[in-house]
Amino acid sequence: MSFAQLMRVEFKVGMRNYTYPIYFLAALAYGVVLGAFPEEYVSTMAPLFIFIDPGLLGFMFIGTSIFSDKKDGTIGALSVTPMEWRDYYLSKTIIMALLALIGALVIVVVGAGFNVQIAYVLIGTLLVSVVYTLLGIAIAAKYRDLDDYFVPLLAVMVLSFLPFAAYHGLISGPWGKVLYIIPSYPGLYFFHAGFEEIARETLMWSGIALVIWGIVAYNLAKIRFYKYAVEGLR
């Protein structure tokens, strides 16, 4: 099966099981809620909502997608074809990244209008989505259902929200600096750059940090998916 065919199948399955429509409805709901906040709070709340949609929702949805493919035998069937496994998880990553970009656009436009530096938001969304989707694939590969996935999902959620506290001064000192290694932290700078002035040097280093995280997450996904999802079926 070619990469393009995998993309088409992935999109059709996501539409058929309502994963993608639910994703869009969640983005719309976040946008409506954001729009209900007083204007002075929008720049604080928008980055949080934008992160939740492409980051954590993508992390959760990719897990359910992997579990579904395990249960219905898709991975087993693909294992006997001359397919490169990287095409499988990269097709899912690209689909989720595209959904994340659309979701972020919906949140920003519905909740804050067009007076936003949307390019920064979309760049951050793309990078964060890729990182969390690949991390989701790496972690979900070991499990068979959402019940088993819940504990690591909860752990990732808790860790990913800590940088928000550090960014707003609730966590300071050495611990605040240590939290920068969590991928949601550099993503925050891009999300905030849509609503307030952020130094370009800061954005540059944030982008580099997310690219490094993307490389690490890709290799984790590659190793763990083959070990648990492919070899685990044999």
What does this structure look like?
The structure is a single chain. With 234 residues, the protein is mainly α. The protein has one domain (3-233). The model has no long low-confidence stretch (mean pLDDT 88). It is built from ten helices and no strands. Keywords: Membrane, Transmembrane, Transmembrane helix. The chain crosses the membrane at residues 20-37, 49-68, 89-112, 118-137, 149-170, 203-221. It holds the Pfam family FLQE3_permease.
Share in β-strands: under 5%
Q: In terms of structural class, how would the helical and strand content be classed?
A: mainly alpha
Number of strands: 0
- What characterizes the major β-sheet? none
The overall pLDDT, averaged over residues, is 88
* Overall body shape: globular
Number of domains as seen in the coordinates: 1
Radius of gyration: 18 Å
Low-confidence stretches: none
Number of helices: 10
- The H/E string reads HHHHHHHHHH
Q: Helical proportion?
A: over 70%
Pfam family, one: FLQE3_permease
Transmembrane segments: 20-37, 49-68, 89-112, 118-137, 149-170, 203-221
Keywords: Membrane, Transmembrane, Transmembrane helix
InterPro entries: FLQE3_permease (IPR056926)
Short descriptors:
single chain; 234 residues
Give a topology summary.
Blueprint (H helix, E strand, L loop, with lengths): L2 H14 L2 H18 L2 H33 L2 H5 L6 H28 L5 H23 L5 H22 L6 H5 L5 H10 L6 H31 L4
Helix pairs in contact: 1-5, 2-3, 2-5, 3-5, 3-6, 3-7, 3-9, 5-6, 6-9, 6-10, 9-10
Summarize the structure.
By secondary structure, this protein is an all-alpha fold. It is built from ten helices and no strands.
